[in-house]
Amino acid sequence: MKIEICELSKVIDNNIILNNVTMSLESGNIYGFIGRNGSGNTMLLKMICCFVIPTQGNILIDGKSILDKNYFNNKIRALIEKPKFLDGLSGFDNLKLLASINNEIDDNEINYWLDKLGLLKDKNKLYGKYSLGMKQKLGIIQVLMENPQIIILDEPLSGIDENGVNIIRDILLHEKEKGKLIIISTHIKDDIEKMCNIIYKFDNGTVNLLTNNKKN
After folding, report:
1. CA–CA separation, 129 vs 138, rounded Å?
2. Does the global pTM surpass 0.90?
3. Which residue in 45, 126, 177, 196 has its CB near the most CB atoms, within 10 A?
4. Element housing 136 (H / E)
5. 141 with 114: CB under 8 angstroms?
6. How far apart (Å, rounded) are the C-alpha atoms in residues 162 and 212?
């Protein structure tokens, strides 16, 4: 898949969040977006997911404009900002509820990802009793579990212990090798240097390429 960001700008209350950004993102790569809070990286993720409409410019996904009123893409999954689930349901039941929307996977697939992220033993615990790290892992599972082609993660390693970080890194590198298009946004450069082969820096609405080890 391919995401083309074309002369994209976003202005809110006369504040320039993104200023004339152009870039191309392709499958088989992990892209890192690094920037301080408010630098525009999270805003770009929201626009790719159609949560926010750009002030100017366009985003094309496989040649289709997200501004088209009939646009819909079921191959994108995202975790932006903090994960949100129902406190009164277990971790497993929250995932099962989400999976019922598309009805593409069964309980075995959900349990597989719970096991991969180390949450299988806590699958029946109420989400409201999960720790910060457990909540973050559950949010990552809901992104991964339906075999999306575009994976978008905003600060995915927040609250995750070192072992969990290594597990998530290995999973994402494996998904990259399967040909997925992965975008990771963070304000901590160390979080992404070992995972991302292409890194962009966001600063005051502008975007600059820092690293480009593009897959051939």
Report:
1. 13
2. yes
3. 196
4. helix 132-144
5. yes
6. 26
